[in-house]
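Hi everyone,

Forwarding the result from last night's run.
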Amino acid sequence: MQLSIVFAVLLACILNSTPSNAIPARARAHHQMRANPRMVTMPLKRLYVPRTDVHPQLLLQQHINRGNKRLARMTGRSEPPEHELRTEMHKRMYILESASVDASSATTVARSHFSRRHSRHSKPSTMAASNVSSTGTGSGVSSLDIQAAENGGLTPAKQPTANNTLGLDIDADDVGYIATIQIGTPPQNFNILMDSGSADFWVGSESCQSQQGTCGNHTFLGSNSSSSFVQSNQNFNVTYGSGSVAGVLCQDNVNMAGLQLNNHTFGVANEESVQFSADTVPFDGLMGLAQSTLSNEKVPTPVESLASNGLISSAISSFKISRLADQLNDGEVTFGGLDSTKFVASTLITIPNVSKIGFWEGALNAITVNGQNTGMTGRTAILDTGTTLIIAPPADTLAVMTMIGGTCDTQQCTIPCTSNASVALSFGNASFTIDPRDMVVLPVDLNDPTGDCTAGIQPGTIGTDTEWLVGDVFLKNAYLSVDTTNNEISLAKLS
């Protein structure tokens, strides 16, 4: 009975936790040299938000649930009913009760650290990644990733070398990527989730309210903190795969890696659901970098405004997504061009964006496993930095899992943590191989890093049978550049 109560508390936590991805309800030709002064690159960083209040396997189910909800919104279909998502969480908790992992012990540890929270008004803590070894491909999940999944932590990006570049810090075990920008007069630092799968830019307002009262220990924007802040009477609201915000549009000065965008129009949220307002949320706002045709605010995205104001030569956003286990910490986002030091120039391919509503969606030419073609044709992939996993139609997922020696049940798809299976996605007749380490996300039993692991590809129960939602599991293995001006997507192999 006591264990059931513990897991009921865990379920409540997970259903109201922070999203690592977000998608709104509405659904290159030439690379720029790094010396180009009309290009901005921003580091994406991982914020220290320990999640020891929730078992990592429950967080993993959260990612799967969010991916399914996100895919539903992208394809204009109804989201899976809440009771179905709850059922999946109950199944996951049953697995934990039955597994060799001592879930009650994990909960005890969680409670002892429950009060640990990241404060945006102080220097964020960092995890000593250099003191933790990282095992290689085929030897199981690295202790570094397991530690990050259990404890969270901030792995700061190294200072970028390209012009106009901001680094992307890594959140936990490659869960998400966040940059710091400045807004207002005097300028304040805001931690912003960088999301290629949405098109609205917002931060919390000074009058922000949530179901819990205030909007937590975040940095807010308004006339009290910024003399250049001008609020309008135009309302906006955005509903994401998890959570929602509502507020009004405003104008204020935004600085991204030294590029000063004055009087930019964006949103300040007067209302945030708990998924955004909780103290554990590792960001103060969200910057959507899809096309503005997708925007609920109906205003240009920051990168579009940078281009229209002549601050960058073209409305291009380019991503290098870093992997925690590599300990390179070289993630970054570049505005206005591509950082040529991050990819092999001869491998750069450019394909048309096939989305009609503003996502970044490319045609998949082939999907192979260990060099063998799966025979899947007519597939498309929405490339989304705001999604952790790959969500594919159930039949496609099962086919891939079978070929790599994995299994799928009613709960999840798993593969051996020691798997060396090679999965590759082809765009524009160029094949991009997913590192086997990215296909083994987290051990089912955290005490057994060489046992069974939750797979990096999971089935989506909604959407068409040809649409894939491709997140960071893949994007850590390619340089991604999206060009609003030419409506094109570029990919290249990493250098």
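The first strand starts at residue 40 and ends at 45.

Cheers,
N.
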